[in-house]
Structure prediction request, 640 residues.
Amino acid sequence: MPTDFPATVTINEEGPREGFQIEPGPISTADKVAFVEALAGTGVRKIDCVSFVDPRRVPGMADADAVATGIHRVPGIRYTGLWLNERGLDRALALPLDTVGAIRVTASETFSTNNTGKGIVATQDEQRRWLERYVAAGIPVESGYVMTAFGCNFEGEVPVATVIDMVAFILELVDGAGLPRPRVFLADTVGHAAPSAIERVVGAVRDRWPDLPLGLHLHDTRGLGVANVHAALALGVDHFDAACAGLGGCPFAGHAGAAGNVCTEEVVFLCEELGIDTGIDLERMIDCARMAEEIVGHRLPGKLTRGGSLRAIRGGQVAA
Amino acid sequence: MPTDFPATVTINEEGPREGFQIEPGPISTADKVAFVEALAGTGVRKIDCVSFVDPRRVPGMADADAVATGIHRVPGIRYTGLWLNERGLDRALALPLDTVGAIRVTASETFSTNNTGKGIVATQDEQRRWLERYVAAGIPVESGYVMTAFGCNFEGEVPVATVIDMVAFILELVDGAGLPRPRVFLADTVGHAAPSAIERVVGAVRDRWPDLPLGLHLHDTRGLGVANVHAALALGVDHFDAACAGLGGCPFAGHAGAAGNVCTEEVVFLCEELGIDTGIDLERMIDCARMAEEIVGHRLPGKLTRGGSLRAIRGGQVAA
Prediction:
């Protein structure tokens, strides 16, 4: 399998935000803070900590401000939050978080409407206003997201041409504002992707924009998450969102089986075995996954929590 | 990623044997029989049903004879059992099972000793006697197994040269008896493999024996199981052992986190997405996985049990 593996990979840790918002909880503010602080000790450089969303819709994020305030920050790590409306941004700006903007569009009209109340065109209008807002406030626009880029639970297959249109929209928007092009994340929001789809969609975007920095946001709904990461690595993709222990899921995916992001420690383990540097200490990330299970009070999907790494085994210590 | 995908893949279902022997149970004989019969309705062509092992060591298999007798067989499907000693073979021969022989060696001296009480040389002597026994009884030798071919929990890395030696031993043995060469399964018994190791070990065996039919027996201890299947498919490997719902684990792996085989329905889903025919109905295999969870009384690792297939979604039905 001739490949184009990157030398280094950057992982954005999504566990605290993607994970804790869907857990039945309640999870204490102190536990949330402690988890973010433990993650900061793994070597990961970006941690998505909280969502600024309506607590009536997502009660698990009602204490987002307290979590953001409570974190003892480690220099060099970026602690981010997610907002989806003006009020959320105002909350984020008042807190000691790293405020980075993103342009977010969805390649499925139905998913877009069900998830945000707005269809594709209305979302694009809204994103234009967000871009103006970010420019006015001096907030860097670092990423673009194309959600449901690999399929939708309502519409089924999402045409690659639609994904291309969504990427084109993001790039035209930032180009028009004279901003540097952001990294574009293709999101398998509801876990439809297989390695063949990764190759097809990433390939089509690459064909059109050979130099565009890409990332993937993958959910492991159907067990192919790590295989999809491997396929993307072989294409040279070097940025991934992932969640410690496989925390997460989407409350609005229209699907009871919606699963979390690909599991951070599994992606780190894969990269280590391929000789790719992530900057993350695998043992510490596994410790965080065990901590996550203690916090949520049940088993989480990540397999290394029980499987462990190979470091001690290869170091000649007899297995436990 | 240029690939050499096979047009068809054969999956040996290991769930009933690998899975039920490790469950704390008790699982009724009737449930075991019903599960095998449900699997027989999926299109899978070979089902490993029981182990003929010492019930004091593996109490979950004490009713192996009753299970084997209870199954209503479907013509064209092979129902097999595993024996590790003469008494086990005698039990198997007295039952309505398909009796097929295998030559089994382990590429780690320590694992071999801990698992079977015999080191590599003693195991090879024993396998010579098994071969004579199979020839005398007219039992076909269809497969060879090299266990711990990708690593060992006691010895750490297993040299590729040792794996080659083990394959050479199997082939010399059957060649010497004038038998057709069996399919050789490389087994990642304790889940150390990554796609890079699959390529390295399969590549080395292929270099030495380009026409030898190969298979893989993979455990998903560290989350890379499906990625490993994908890497093997890309090399043209077309036979896999797998377990419905990810049932299983090894009671003698020296590791509390030993996990089951790669999950059958995830392998089937991967193959479908790659356009590879397995002959297995994915929906029915997912139904079997749900049945397995009901039987064991707890969640099992397979993700499609909750994620579901994409058939209804792509067919235009709104997701549940």
Observations:
- Chain B touches chain A through 58 residues (CB under 8 Å).
- The first helix of chain B runs from residue 15 to 20.
- The longest strand of chain B covers residues 46-52.
- The beta strands of chain B are 10-13, 46-52, 78-83, 101-106, 141-147, 183-188, 214-218, 239-242.
